[in-house]
Amino acid sequence: MHSMAVFLVLLHFTATLAAGEPATTTLKVTPATLTGSNRSITIQWSNLPSPSPLDYVAVYSPPSSGDLDYLGFLFLNGSASWATGAGSLTLPRLPNLRAPYQFRLFRWPPGERSRNPRLDQDGDPLPDARRRVAVSGEVSFEAAAAARPAQVHLAFADAPDEMRVVFVCGDTGARAVRYGPAGPREEWEDAATEARTYERRHMCGYPANDSVGWRHPGFVFDGVMKGLQPGRRYHYKVGSDSLGWSETYSFISRDIEANETIAFLFGDLGTYVPYNTYFRTPYESLSTVRWILRDLEVLGDKAAFISHIGDISYAKGYAWLWDHFFEQIEPIASRTPYHVCIGNHEYDWPSQPWKPSWAANIYNGKDGGGECGVPYSIKFRMPGK
Ligand SMILES: *[C@@H]1O[C@H](CO)[C@@H](O)[C@H](O)[C@H]1NC(C)=O
Ligand SMILES: *[C@@H]1O[C@H](CO)[C@@H](O)[C@H](O)[C@H]1NC(C)=O
Ligand SMILES: *[C@@H]1O[C@H](CO)[C@@H](O)[C@H](O)[C@H]1NC(C)=O
Ligand SMILES: *[C@@H]1O[C@H](CO)[C@@H](O)[C@H](O)[C@H]1NC(C)=O
C-alpha cells in the first residue's frame, strides 16, 4: 500500500510536468519573527512564469487588509534576476505597526492599463492589485519586541525643571518613566504615565477615515520627569518590569539661566519609507536626521532643543507614515526635546475653520488628508497646552 502510494504520486508529478503545467509561484519572506524594528527583511520568489518588469510585491499590515489596501509595493525588477522568474528584494527595516505584516505577489502584464483610479505623484496609476499569484506567510514582532515601548520622544513641559516623554505601545498596560542623574540606579525614580488614543471615527475624511489610510495608532503614553537640576545629564527608560523596558536614553535638562540657547529650527521634514507608497516619501529626510545627529554629537553636554515648524510627517491620512516618522526621528527626539507646531498638511480640510488661502488653490483645501489635526494633537504634547 505504502509503496503503491509513492508510485502514484510520482506518476502524477511526472504527468504534470509533461503537460507543461507551470509549477506554483512561491513567495517567502524571512525572518517570520522580528526582534526589533531595525531588522532587515528578505522577500524571495520563484517559479513566476513570463515575468514582466511591472510585476510587483505589495506590503500589507494587518494581514486581513484587502488587496487594494496595501501600504506600498516594490517592483520585482529591483532584483537583478527578475527576468528569470525568481529573485529577492530586501527591506532595510519595518516599524512595529502593532499588527503582523504580509506580502502578496501580483502580475502586471506589459501594456495592461491599471484599473486603479488613484494616481501617484507623477500622475501614473497605482497598481490595481488584480492579478494575485502568491501570498507570503505573516511576519510578526516577537512578544517581547511587540510590548516594548516605541517612538520615544521628549519635549519641554510647563515648569523649567521638568521634561516630558511620550511613547507608543500596542496595549494600555501600565508603563512608567524611570529616570535619574548619572550614578547609582537606586536613586532613580518613577514618573507615572497616562495613555490616550484616537479612533477612525475621529478622522474627518478620505483617506484618513478609509480602509486604505486608517490603521490603529496604538496608545500614546505620556509622563513628566520632575525636579530636574538645570543643565545636567539625566538617564531614563520607559516601560514596566512585567512588560519590558526600552533601552536607556539620556538628555541634558533645560537650563533657563544658560547664557546661550542652541536650537535647530526647520520645517517640512517628512519621512522616508523603503517601498513605493501613495506618493513620494523624501529620501532627503534621512540625511537631515543624520546631520542633526552629527551636530548633537559635537554639542556633547550642551543643552539644545528642536523646533520643527509645521508639516511634520506628511502622512496626509496614511496612518503608518506617522509610525515611520517617529521611528526615524527617535535617535534625535529621545535625547533632545523635539517641539512642533501644526502645518497645513496636518490640519487643512474643507470642514476646518482655519484655511490658508494659498492651500485652497494648490491642494483644494484637502492637504491634511482627512486627519484634521487629530493624529498630530495626540502624538505630540507641547508646553503651554
Ligand atoms: C537593533 O537595535 C538594537 C537596540 O535597540 C541593537 O542592539 C541591535 O544591534 C540593532 N540591530 C541591528 C541589525 O542594527
Ligand atoms: C522597474 O520598473 C518600473 C516600472 O515600470 C520602472 O519605473 C523602473 O525604472 C524599473 N526599474 C529598473 C531597475 O529597471
Ligand atoms: C469619510 O469621511 C467622508 C466625509 O465625512 C464621508 O463622506 C465618508 O463616508 C467617510 N468614509 C468612511 C469609510 O467612513
Ligand atoms: C552667564 O553669564 C554671566 C555673566 O558673564 C555669568 O555670571 C553666569 O555665571 C553665566 N551663567 C551660566 C549659566 O553660564
From TrEMBL:
Predominant location category: secreted
InterPro entries per UniProt: Metallo-depent_PP-like, PAPs_N, Purple_acid_Pase-like_N
SUPFAM superfamilies in the cross-refs: Metallo-dependent phosphatases, Purple acid phosphatase, N-terminal domain
Keywords noted in UniProt: Secreted, Signal
Gene Ontology molecular functions: acid phosphatase activity; metal ion binding
Protein localization: Secreted
Pfam entry (one): Pur_ac_phosph_N
The Purple acid phosphatase N-terminal domain, residue ranges: 149-251
Keyword Membrane assigned: no
Signal peptide (from-to): 1-20
CC terms in the record's Gene Ontology section: extracellular region
Protein name, per record: Purple acid phosphatase N-terminal domain-containing protein
Record organism: Oryza meyeriana var. granulata
